[in-house]
């Protein structure tokens, strides 16, 4: 209280009031301490001692822990997403009335990607395990830790799956590491083609033919199934479950380990571009789902080592990062551009369609003649029943299904093997001889023949022919400058099913404007236009029905 004659009020209070305050403070602090004790805050966090090396099934325990961790992370992300969506919807409701009134804002909102997509993108981008740097460093760790590097090649385009930078790094690296080729997914390629590619590849390094199992289950499910199978006396040999080439590969590696007389297990690093089947290979050899594998590209983000047998240990690696300098078709198949949202899936499909024969695509997908990628996708979407509200074909979903077919486990396509194969510049006859030393190549050849006899191959007529773009450049160190891809040349367009074979058809651009084959008169841009960017006057859609042409008096209008 301010007393008369004094500038400020005095801070003096009565003793009873002071004691009362002090008591309240004491009580409050006590309560805080009690709560903290309940929650366990302030206690020293016990250090996780991990799984001791001597523990039996250490590997399994660690793997299960990793899977649990990733599941928890996924759930967290989902919850976060749901919360974000909830908040966004609340905000949306609040603003809807005012925004609906403004047509400009309405249009802008339509063009924006949905909140869910944005959040997903943000979560993905913020995950450090998705960065190029991380993927490169993981790959380098695998190369350094391995005695043998197995480059996994998709049998549908073996040359396109080769990475010269990686091969060179292995050859020039320390420790006399051996390089092997493994031709995976041979069940998706005609037999003659596989044989030719095996001959070609074996001129450089030993090559193993392989077909991985594509339906590996978790250990528990698998055990149940095995019990059921033995009870009923049936063995599951369906197309997806069967794996061919495993005995030949294990024999080759086992023989090498014995011949070298090494102590400890032989470390075999599996490398290759995304989705070539590295994880599926390990799962097939292990006979269980030891690594995450699936149609989605870039599932493996960290290296993971798995004991396959007493003397062989395999290391799974994330896919090689494709350099931006690669041709567009190579990027569509081998890079994670679409997943990283650097390129649209529609663009990737358009690029792929340009690389193959239109008739074959029509036959494979059972669609009628199409003029361009968008039309193809709408036919494809209708065929598969990918429809949106009002029966509009969902071309986006059709495009991602199409791309998954090309990189995943379904579509049969092949690239022709070179007639006169030659060694790449970083390989010499001496290096090849050195690399082929120590392997039992005769046994390998017999093993491959056995594999080729067992696999059911598609016939030549039902397989699409793809124009290979040659080896794909990879990035091994994130420090190297990565230049963007050059514009496609006219040669790139040859054999395309969108332009030439369409025979004078129109190409509809993404915006829906038709581009005819007739020579078009191009007006040169003025300097100002060039600076600003092409600004062609856009035709305005005038709805004449709204124009009042009738002479009759409109009673709704106030003509004051
Ligand atoms: N038909 C067929 N499909 C296969 C074969 N091997 C793998 N696949 C399929 O190819 C897809 C990719 O396999 P993954 O094992 O995940 O490939 P990855 O190389 O580990 O992929 P990232 O984790 O992206 O590096 C999956 O859908 C597999 O089912 C095979 O031999 N034949």
TrEMBL record:
Domain CP-type G per the UniProt entry, residue ranges: 136-323
Molecular function, one GO term: GTP binding
Keyword Transferase in record: no
Subcellular localization(s) per the UniProt record: Nucleus, Nucleolus
Biased composition (Basic and acidic residues): 56-113, 497-509
Pfam families with a match to the protein in the record: GN3L_Grn1, MMR_HSR1
Source taxon at top rank: Eukaryota
Alphabetical list of InterPro entries matching this protein: G_CP_dom, Gnl3_N_dom, GTP-bd, GTP-bd_ortho_bundle_sf, P-loop_NTPase, TRAFAC_YlqF/YawG_RiboMat
Gene Ontology cellular component list: nucleolus
Residues covered by region (Disordered): 1-116, 482-528
Name of the featured protein: Guanine nucleotide-binding protein-like 3
